[in-house]
Give the backbone structure.
Amino acid sequence: RAYIIHSSNDALAMACTIAIRYSTIRRQGYNADADKKHAENAPNEIQVLDYRQQQYRLLPLLAASYAIFFSGKHVLARLKNIENELVSGSTAITKTIVGDIHATTSALKSYATAFTADGIEDCRKACGGHGFLVSSGLVELSNTYLQSCTVEGDNYMLPQQVVKVLLKLVGAMQSGDAALLKDHKGTDMEYLIAPLMTLMKQNGGVPNKSTFVLPTTNGNARDFMDVSTILKAFQHRSACLLLDVAMQLASNMAKSSAQQAWNDCLLGMARASRAHASYILLRDFYNGLKEEENKSSASCLGPNEIQVLSQCLTLLGLYWMDQYLEDFLQNQSISTGSIPHLRQAILDVMTKLRPDAVGLCDARDYSDFRLKSALGKFDGDVYPAIMESARRDPLNQKSADGGVGMGYDESLKKLIVGGIGEYKNGLSGTVSRL
């Protein structure tokens, strides 16, 4: 599962590279500043990537590919550490740690592969009709990747594995088992302890109502620009959804069988697992950038790169907040009045990221040979590449007897040249338009 998670970043990044490069080459729509552009000898049509709709479709996917990269790196490092500890005979690896890594890989595999598969398809759609061409590279990329949603645990089954582990943490907190809670120190679940504790101590109100509420200051778009605030909102969302499942399960078991009670909670489990995975992805992205920043001159990332990737992190957090707004509204961590500020913040971040979109794709260093895409060529020479791929297609090769192409003489010629479809003496109803 760890390798599937890590490889997902490549699949999504390649799709984004193709779609974003093509969206900068493709121009569509009259530019209102056409006269000024003409005076500057610049094209008077708008690059497709300059449309907000296209930015909202593609830039969060590009940001997510980097988040999945850092999470995949984190999971592989943890598994290597566990392996080394076990081989050395250490007793430091407890059942809690094993359960935690199982929950992490299950949640990330389920969420990252589904998000990547959907993201590749969105990239194909974002390329319009040309995205449907085999020469776009996106068709093969999608067909090759889709199996990842099923292998090593179906994506609709794995959330149950995640919640089984997380519910043990809820149980430990409800029973006040200090020793068991101590075992969770350093695990990926540790972030849940503080918000769960505050939720369980609430008197009066709704037990799964968040104790953290956005906005925190003036009620404008700037409130949504702070990464630590975004992470805190995702922590509380995850805790609220998990506690909601625990409460629903306890309630259901009082009036039905354990099997039926579990079955009735499956949808809530999927939401809780998704919330857990999305927080881990954002946290690993944040921690990965901090590690690179602390390396200083030893890092391959300079201050400018860190800044741009931090904007990617912010955009991804806001995008998921907007996509799953019902979760945040349900636990009341966001008010309906702050939704316009959230969406304005998304626009602001996309404006900052737009000039660096192609650079973020080029930074992945995928060769044209690996992309296998006429649309995603590094030199941007898209349309000659599409024509060349059409020329190489066997159906467009000349037939042996000098005809136009395979099947023309056998099938099409009789419809076109003095053919069957011609109107003759009122006996035939149509003329072929071929």
In short: The radius of gyration is 27 Å. The chain has a mean pLDDT of 87.
